[in-house]
């Protein structure tokens, strides 16, 4: 991907999250309309039509901070619902092999175009599959969930918790960026709370090792309604 394209993508990300909340809300409404109209294929339609108001156009700042502070687990990493793959590319290195999973062909087309000439390309891959039915050959040391838990209907959350248990190694870590924690109706994004995550993770032995406000939610509309959770299993 060229520097010009990267800049354009970052600009689109900024526009997606401009402080002009009316514009942002109308993009979200358009996205919700597509998802409800096309059901399972809705996400791919959104990517195809470039209605992606969630896309920051760059890696998630708090992930870069955790990486810099050297507290991000090493080994095999899974990012479910990776979208355009900004975080996948950002954290892949000789110490971390990252799998970006998404069911949208168009999202992964974008991710692959963006990353084809990345110097770290041998440390990541993109896989097109459904998180709820996918069977990898090996489990993961780290799973990072951002804007994925909130993407599907609350009735799916128990299955999400079970999958986290199945996909993580016994001593693996789950990192969740929990958004949106403000009050709202409908979705996606569906509103979330720390208790919602705990409810579906606790039965599998997960406990939060830390829950903090994400001060780096640089996006105006997300600031104040995003929390960082780190979870491990103690059974
Ligand atoms: C709200 S977007 C978030 C994308 C990315 N995490 C980001 O923050 O930019 C949700 C993503 O999850 C993907 N997705 C939705 N349901 C999925 C499923 N069951 N399995 C895999 N990916 C899924 C969608 O295609 C979409 O790219």
Automatic annotation (TrEMBL):
Keyword Phosphoprotein: yes
SUPFAM superfamilies found in the cross-reference section: S-adenosyl-L-methionine-dependent methyltransferases
InterPro entries: SAM-dependent_MTases_sf (IPR029063), TPMT (IPR008854)
UniProtKB keywords: Methyltransferase, Phosphoprotein, S-adenosyl-L-methionine, Transferase
Source superkingdom: Eukaryota
Region (Disordered), start-end ranges: 1-25
Biased composition (Basic and acidic residues): 7-17
Pfam families linked: TPMT
MF terms in GO: S-adenosylmethionine-dependent methyltransferase activity
Name the record gives this protein: Thiol methyltransferase 2
Species annotation: Papaver somniferum (Opium poppy)
């Amino acid at each position: 991907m060229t520097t010009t394209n990267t800049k354009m993508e970052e600009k689109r990300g900024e526009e997606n999250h401009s402080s002009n909340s009316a514009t942002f809300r109308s993009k979200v409404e358009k996205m919700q309309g597509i998802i409800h109209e096309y059901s399972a294929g809705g996400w791919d339609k959104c990517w195809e039509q470039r209605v992606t108001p969630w896309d920051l156009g760059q890696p998630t700042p708090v992930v870069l901070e955790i990486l810099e502070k050297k507290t991000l687990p090493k080994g095999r990493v899974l990012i479910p619902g990776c979208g355009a793959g900004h975080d996948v590319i950002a954290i892949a290195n000789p110490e971390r092999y990252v799998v970006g999973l998404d069911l949208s062909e168009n999202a992964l087309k974008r991710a692959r175009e963006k990353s084809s000439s990345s110097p770290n390309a041998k440390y990541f891959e993109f896989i097109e599959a459904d998180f709820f039915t996918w069977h990898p050959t090996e489990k993961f040391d780290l799973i990072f969930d951002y804007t994925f838990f909130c993407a599907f209907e609350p009735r799916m959350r128990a299955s999400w918790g079970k999958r986290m248990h199945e996909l993580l190694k016994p001593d693996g870590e789950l990192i969740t960026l929990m958004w949106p924690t403000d009050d709202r109706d409908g979705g996606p994004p569906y509103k979330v709370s720390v208790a919602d995550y705990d409810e579906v993770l606790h039965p599998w032995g997960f406990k939060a090792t830390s829950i903090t406000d994400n001060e780096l939610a640089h996006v105006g509309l997300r600031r104040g309604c995003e929390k960082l959770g780190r979870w491990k299993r103690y059974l």
